[in-house]
Amino acid sequence: MRPVLALALLTIGLGACGEDDDKKIDTGETVPTGYADLAVGEVADMVTEGGEVWVELAQPGSYIVVLTSADEAQGTEHGYGAAAAEARVVTSADPRPIPAGGHPIMRTELGDSFDFEVYNGSRYVDITAEAIQVTDELVVWEDRTTANEFGSVDEDMMADVIAQLEQIVLPRERVLFGDESDVDGDGKLWVLMTYTVNQYGAQAYVTWCDIGVTEGCYGYGHGHEIVYLGYNDPDDSRASADGITETVAHELAHLVYAYHKVLLNGELGVDENIYVTEGTSAMAQDLTGYNNGNQYVWAAAIDMSDTYGSDDYSVQAVSLNDLFRGSGYYDEARDGALRGGGYLFLRYLFEQAGGMTIERDGSFTDLGGMAWIKDFFAVPETGADAVEVTTGADFQDLALDFYTALVVSGRGLNDDPTWNFHERVEDPLTGYEHGVDTYADIHGWLQLDGPPVQPIDEADGSLRAGGVEYLQITAEAGVLSLPVAEAALARARVFRIE
Question: I want to staple 100 with a disulfide (CB 3.0 to 4.6 A). Which of 209, 401, 429, 449 is the partner?
Fold first, then answer.
């Protein structure tokens, strides 16, 4: 009988097959399900049967088990290994409030004043702002009411921001996602600089109420396309023209998404998961060529646990349920990882659709990814349904592929495009790199080393519904078996690394 390698929490055991004779392996030419004769770098599916996942290994070696959960519940942890029978529910914070205001349509000249109603973190307040920059496509307003510890905006730097928005961001977002709305007919995007955004605790925000999404707005909405922008400490890198441009590119994508997904489809009651929209806006940062600050977000969804001393800053905190299911879901502790996870999953789908190439003049050539993401913005479906409609694939299949790619990519052991993110490419106009590197050196501040992989004898035994655990084991030939709570609906793969 075959030896069994049982992966239990803190133990690795060898034993006889006993009742497992139904897992017999053929010796014929057809490789049966559950048999893995893997060279280093190769990947094979494991079999799920009731309360375990298993695979027959033909070769001794070092392996990583990619263990995922297809359970669609939110906030649930399932046990594996010795904790296979355990499950617990993790509660999360309430969603943040959405600011809104109400004012009539107007045309704008340099020096004009306008009254806004804005949210300062505790209540709505009235402010008066002055138009300090007016171009064919943008109006920059500055709050003249709220005291601001950082002083007035640098108008020369704001002119640089406007040039980058008009020459790079706006044209690219229109090609990638579709045109923005123009509810006031002035053909301009408004940017309101106000310290109330800082008081709110944000860097910037938009509200769908401003462009006519009425659900939950109670009659409010300025009737303009507005990005509400806070002030940055002059010593902060985000205070640069590039940093501000990246922020506006992110926020503009929120408005474009609302216009195409909600207004054009006549679905005014749509309430998309915020981590879907954060993912699409992070894609805007990346694809428009300002994938700089965004690196710190997707790094939190790979592994920054040592930096912050918490697994909340790693893929172990990411659940695709919390990203693509449940419209009101928000989790303060895991917010960074979930935002980064939304981007990483959408970036993976974009690349699997074909991605794009960037020409020397800064133009794009679509290889399938651009068509996919524009479709993702346009279809009336939301969340996991939108993923399935636009890819034609099963969401759980894509989830397992995505989680596999995170741990395979960048190791140089496997060149299958399904398991690898595209190589990063420098943008000829901005100098920043498009895409993801799970082993990136981020400005000398953080050296990524891929997602965290737990040695089996140190595994925590807890798998988040919709999430992943990476477990490393050195094994002899035989059956590799891992008990998992049945409610987890486990799916798994094994990846040989040595």
Answer: 209
Name residue, tokens 């030896």.
3
Alpha-carbon torsion 237, 278, 393, 317, what sign?
A: positive
Q: Are strands 4-8 and 462-464 parallel, antiparallel or unpaired?
A: unpaired
C-alpha span between 166 and 95 (Å, rounded) = 33
The CA distance from 452 to 303, in Å, is 6
Helix 335-352 to helix 395-408 angle (10° resolution) is 100
pLDDT for res 88: 67
User: How does strand 189-193 pair with strand 138-143?
Assistant: parallel
Q: Which residues of 86-111 are buried (b: 16+ CB within 10 A; e: fewer)?
A: ebeebebeeebeebbbeeeeeebeee
User: Dihedral of the CA atoms 300, 305, 307, 308 (nearest 10)?
Assistant: 90
DSSP 8-state class, residue 258:
I
pLDDT tens digits, residue range 212-255?
A: 887 778 778 899 999 999 998 877 767 799 999 999 999 999 99
Contacts of 117 (CB under 8 A, 6+ apart): 100, 101, 102, 103, 124, 125, 126, 127, 220, 222
* β partners of residue 35: 56
Rounded CA separation 72/40 (Å): 33
Q: What percent of the chain has pLDDT over 90?
A: 75
d(CA 402, CA 396): 10
Which of 33, 46, 43, 42 is closest to 5 using CA atoms? 46
Q: Are 41 and 413 in contact (CB under 8 A)?
A: yes
Listed residue (200, 207, 204, 202) closest to 223, CA to CA: 207
Tokens of 383: 């969340």
From the number of C-beta atoms within 10 Å of its C-beta (0-12, 13-18, 19+), residue 447 rates as exposed
Alpha helices in 168-287 (DSSP H): 170-177, 196-200, 241-257, 274-287
DSSP label at 434?
E
Spatial neighbors of 456 by CB under 8 A, at least 6 apart, are: 7, 12, 81, 471, 472, 473
Provide mean pLDDT across the span 23-39: 65
Residue 287's Cα: distance from chain center in Å? Answer: 14
CB 332 within 8 A of CB 95: no
**Nearest-CA neighbor of 471 among 455, 458, 457?**
455
Residue appearing with tokens 């970036």: 347
Tokens for 190? 């408004």
Going along the chain from its start, the domains and CATH numbers come out as 4-91+453-496 (no CATH), 96-271 (3.30.2010.30)
- Report pLDDT digits (tens) over 449-494: 999 999 999 999 999 999 999 999 999 999 999 999 999 999 999 9
Task: Please report, in angstroms and rounded to a whole number, the separation of the first and last CA atoms in the chain.
Answer: 26
The enclosing H or E element of 295 equals helix 294-300
pLDDT tens figures, 178-223:
999 999 999 999 999 999 999 999 999 999 999 988 777 877 889 9
